[in-house]
Write a structure and sequence with these properties.
Strand order of the largest sheet: 1-4-5-8
Shape: globular
Order of helices and strands: HHHHHEEEEEEEEHEEHHHH
Bound molecules: acetoacetyl-coenzyme A
Helix content: 40-55%
Oligomer: single chain
Largest sheet: 4 strands, mixed
Number of domains: 3
Amino acid sequence: MNFALTEEQAMVRDMARDFAEAELMPLARKHDDDGCIDESVFAKVGELGLWGLTIPEEYGGFGMTNVALCLVLEEINRACASVGVTLSVHNSLAASTLLKNGTDEQKSSWLPRMATGEVLGAYSLSEAASGSDAAALKAVAVRDGDGWRLNGTKLWVTTGKQAGLFLVYARTDSTVSKAKGITCFLIPKGAEGFVVGKSEKKTGLRGSSTTELVLNNVFVPDSMVLGPVNRGFHIAMDALDGGRIGIASQAIGIGRACLEASVKYSKEREQFGRAIGQFQAIQWKLADMSARLDSARLMTHNAAWMRDQGQACGRQASQAKLLASTACNFAADECLQIHGGAGYTDDFEVERYFRDARITEIYEGVTDIQRMVIARSLLA
Ligand code: CAA
């Protein structure tokens, strides 16, 4: 067994780290305050090739692995989780899903533009009444000539404001059991009747956009159906196996930022005549944060490696997300505690980490859904 990174993996991780430290860390607070990502960041991520990290070279991307994506996402999220989730959803839920299920024509018309970031990708499964029970979705697609007419309202769409291509799931057959009658549609921004609705005001990840989508009789031609009709739920679930590895990496990145801030403050802050890091109560917090984050990272890289080998990794992806998101929230909570009252103000980045961390236990499947996936796999 060899845990060493390849030269290529180390190179892309270092590139992402340099970019994150030089360009994202100084902007993260602004993204949070402004409720949007600075326009310049989208272009810079494109210049570095990160929008196309997992898109094959023949479509203009780097053609790198999911393990490489984990390394990059950890670095980016350590600096700014709003940019991190945008990058994760674009690569793991949108571009990878199109690559795996698209026709040659779909891939050649969209992937080159997704690789540069000219077109950002979004994934739209959830609705008001179908969050954890994703297969209960109500958006409907009815056959119309050589395509489909879509109606309904989708929710919680990451990158809704900026995305140029949306993977939208709608019901195409209501006579079969709910998961067997769903289809995935590719809808470009600006399609007639396709409205990007209200933006959510969130507790954290305030720089990233999260919107509603309204489908008013939107026509989608057959050429824009992704994968077989009525196989959309399987596509959605497989995409989430990859997406959950991305969110696990995000959680590790935020958690690492918390650990690093805690170590720094523990050395600087003095009480009772010595640095607080000299007290065992603080040392044990740091030790537990480190152990939990490092074990989550190993789980996450293992799940990513399995996905790169084409192996089924649903259980491993859910285990990685479960461990990483809980380790992240533990780290954020302890980090704030170590900082005391100062951590509860915006004098430090800690309060933002604390708010950003919380979503990792919620989106792309809440923690108990991860447990459900793991337990079902064990009992199958
Ligand atoms: N890969 C491929 N197929 C899969 C699969 C996977 N990982 N998991 C399940 N399937 C298939 C099953 O084999 C089954 O196929 P058949 O009908 O052919 O037998 C079908 O899907 C239905 O599976 P289940 O019976 O397990 O489905 P279920 O209705 O019980 O749901 C669930 C399972 C795990 C609870 C699922 O609904 C789920 O993951 N819920 C959470 C949804 C979620 O994570 N949403 C996040 C949306 S994205 C987001 O957060 C916003 C963002 O942009 C970041």
